[in-house]
Amino acid sequence: MERKGSSWADQWDYSHPETGSGGGGGGGGGRAKYTKKFGEGFSKTKAAASTGMKKVKGGASVGLHWIKDKCHKTTHK
């Protein structure tokens, strides 16, 4: 059986950069574009997670205070 191209392991081997995109020198711009998009998406995700956790923390705090007030009222009657 004849193999053409590289194996699946060779695609993760960065010691031979000339076997990569084949163009030679022009592949860096695409990576920068995706890195920038990833960074923007990550910051949006981080902000949404932070806002969600603040809401969860506030809701849990209100719920615990409600339970504390209910227990406190029933024990001191």
Q: How many individual β-strands?
A: 0
Distance between the termini: 87 Å
Mean pLDDT comes to 75
**DSSP strand (E) fraction?**
under 5%
Topology as a string of helices (H) and strands (E): H
Radius of gyration in whole Å, from Cα?
Answer: 28 Å
* Helix content, binned percent: 55-70%
Q: Which shape, going by the Cα principal axes?
A: elongated
User: Helical segment tally?
Assistant: 1
Residue stretches low in confidence (pLDDT < 50, at least 5 long) are none
Helix/sheet category: mainly alpha
Main sheet overview:
none
Name a few traits of the molecule.
single chain; 77 residues; mainly alpha
Structure commentary:
The protein is mostly helical and 77 residues long. The chain is 62% helix and 0% strand. The protein has one helix and no strands. The chain has one helix at residues 28-75. The chain is elongated and about 80 Å long.
How would you summarize this macromolecular structure in one to three sentences?
With 77 residues, the chain is mainly alpha-helical.
Blueprint of the fold:
Layout: H1 28-75
